[in-house]
Amino acid sequence: MPELPEVETVCAGLRRHLLGRRITGVHIYNEAVIHTCPGGAAQFAARIRGKTICAITRRGKYILIALSEGWLVCHLRMTGKLLVRAGDAARGKHDHVVFELDDGRKLFYEDVRRFGGFAYHASDPLQMPPLADLGPEPLSADFSGEVLWRNARGRKRPVKAQLLDQHVVAGIGNIYADEILFRAGIRPRKGADRLTKAECARIAQATKVVLAEAIQAGGSTIRDYVDSDAQAGHFQLAHQVYGRAGAPCRVCGSILKSVQVAGRTSVYCPHCQKS
What is the pTM of this model? Predict the structure, then answer.
């Protein structure tokens, strides 16, 4: 699933291509990917057609497209992609929505597993669930070690599960939770309620550093993630632990171990992550 760095990279690409463009046509080939819109897919297309794209932002793992009237909210889930292509590009088997633009190009929504999709909102979606219920943005001043420590009080679940909770902090998934905890030197199964203020400060600092580095590298391409220009990310080349169970730690040489946390495989270094 694309996480914050991948979604941020997609948004940056979409801004380059789409800001100021008018949507001249909307073709929906699978209504299942239109999740929220009064009147269903037909009304979705009618509400979008003719509108100008004014802003493209991100909240957690959600992409927000502000139109001259209303908002589009997109979640890519596991296999969703938003791809800008030439006007003569052929529709593929897994292209479920195609937006025609006033400059002749098209925006394709491709999704093999069809878990992602769109919602249309007439008013600000940030004021409504699920976006209103998200935790702070990890790269903002709203997220800090103090915030993490306060939120962890009384939470007996593992610290990795705490980081994966989108109500605690928005945008972190399995990949970056592993990488963040490695940088912070903390094991993924440590109870959140046992974290010290110093450990929470290390986690918050590692979060900001890891996510910023991943954005700079265009995100992580593990399976099929690509940005809006169909370019793969490169941060997977810098992964210290994610997906590397049984391999030697790149820092100390110890063999990396894996455990199950919150239903996810978590990889850590028993030497570098002693806390």
Answer: 0.95
